[in-house]
Amino acid sequence: MSTSHCKSSPTCEYCALSRNCTENINSTSAMQKVQVLTHKIYHKGDTLFCAGNAFNALYIMRSGSAKASTMTFEADEQIVDFYFPGDLLGTDGFAHKLHAHNVTFLETSSVCYISLNAVNALVAHSEVGRQQLLSTMSLNTLNQQQQLMNVHSMTSIQRLTRFLLDLSLKLAKRGLSSQQLTLSMTRIDIANYLGMAIETVSRLLTSMQQQGLIHVQRRQITLLNMPEMNKICLSDPFSQTAGEYDVMQHAMLRSATEYPLSGTNM
Amino acid sequence: MSTSHCKSSPTCEYCALSRNCTENINSTSAMQKVQVLTHKIYHKGDTLFCAGNAFNALYIMRSGSAKASTMTFEADEQIVDFYFPGDLLGTDGFAHKLHAHNVTFLETSSVCYISLNAVNALVAHSEVGRQQLLSTMSLNTLNQQQQLMNVHSMTSIQRLTRFLLDLSLKLAKRGLSSQQLTLSMTRIDIANYLGMAIETVSRLLTSMQQQGLIHVQRRQITLLNMPEMNKICLSDPFSQTAGEYDVMQHAMLRSATEYPLSGTNM
DNA sequence: CGACTGTTTGATGAAATTCAAGCACAGTGG
DNA sequence: CCACTGTGCTTGAATTTCATCAAACAGTCG
């Protein structure tokens, strides 16, 4: 199989997106170009790799979605990230030459492999490839820090709202509706990821629906009032001047955080 | 491989550690070898770089300590990391080609510069250098995730205890006493980093002192009962079998998390 | 000395968890 | 077709942790 395996279809040559693929999704384009890609299909509940597995390759999500988690010593799960088409996976393995995460698919998904040899060659010989890998890994850390900051400084309702808006943004970047979200993860996963009880997630979703901010039908969520949702995220619980800050600027910064290289690639 | 650089002098030629330099501190040795290093001294409160500054170099802490922080939209600080001798700084800049953090020194400190050109050359031409940079950056992300996990699953007392034990481990790895800690950061910094109120930090330290776990004298902390402190971190707030888990295994895992390459370098 | 930052301690309150119970939906098998 | 079972989700009531507010104290430095 080669890089041309998507060419003949209406889907994007490199990242299997149906449209709106004029910019790099998570900076993986150079890798995809340089490498001979092989891909494989997984189903809901399958694991791509587990903590402790040998670190042999990096992966790129082509379609579907997945979660990465670690296990605490008490053997309970902590979800650290969700992955969507175009995302690069597996860089957790560089630290110990073993994978540190479990990656589990949330639905039927397809994934490309890039062998470590290929990654090495790319990083050694391609300036762009090097930049993209380092940029993506740096960004991973920044995103985790952002997440940490959210837990420290935002209330539950703000975190959940932020989560929905982030998801909306990600899906929009991949050519899907920014208002109609189909959650591929359970409430348990969301609660785990955001560090709250499932009951809290459930209560907050109900409350948001009652306020007319969203419409909830099982895993289908419709965002009815995104400007107001943005305000909720920005409002300092302690200050009276809720929503006074520049929402557009905030949205732009968020966007820049997820797609840092768009400026350099266009 | 690179462990012989401590041989000839009482102070380490490369990382300014007085002793116990038989293993790589945070995997920066290859970088230090390849480069012609220049270093500079900073004082308490000085900044190495700020968010938005041009990304021109990476840095290695030689002595002293520093904190990295980001600013929220409400303009309050969130500390994301503390740095000690041997630590690599500045990889936050890869994401946007601008620094994302503010790095501020907590005491008089010295720092080495590695220009981006030098970093590029190293990564392109040295297999070991490449591994070390990628490993360090991967580890940064894993550590942030660990931190996130701690916030989600541990109580305040557990997080603070964990913080002290981690600090102890770091200092011990750098040849200092693992029992006698001199905090270079304020209570405010600690509270900010751990996501709690200063008052909580203060109360918990007092409480731990009353239980005979530690002795507190301003910034001087003495760890009096580290095994018990480990138990506190491990005990699930909900289970009755506190401290039943394998403390040694836990300590080893923690250690492995901070020093991933020690196994590959010895 | 007084102004300052950094820290401690107490009283109160709010946010979110835990415990407990029940509902909705999908798949299975009689 | 309908009970039966399991998973995922919702809702209510009581509890707990921790933050906030308020005040006072301890060292430091100009």
UniProtKB/TrEMBL annotation, chains A, B:
Source organism, top-level taxon: Bacteria
Signal peptide: none
PANTHER family: CRP FAMILY TRANSCRIPTIONAL REGULATORY PROTEIN, FUMARATE AND NITRATE REDUCTION REGULATORY PROTEIN
GO cellular component: cytosol
GO function terms (MF aspect): DNA binding; DNA-binding transcription factor activity
Transmembrane segments: none
Domain HTH crp-type: 154-227
The organism's taxonomic lineage, starting at the top: Bacteria, Pseudomonadati, Pseudomonadota, Gammaproteobacteria, Alteromonadales
The entry's keywords: DNA-binding, Transcription, Transcription regulation
Start and end residues of each Cyclic nucleotide-binding domain: 21-90
Coiled coil: none
Protein name, UniProt field: Fumarate and nitrate reduction regulatory protein
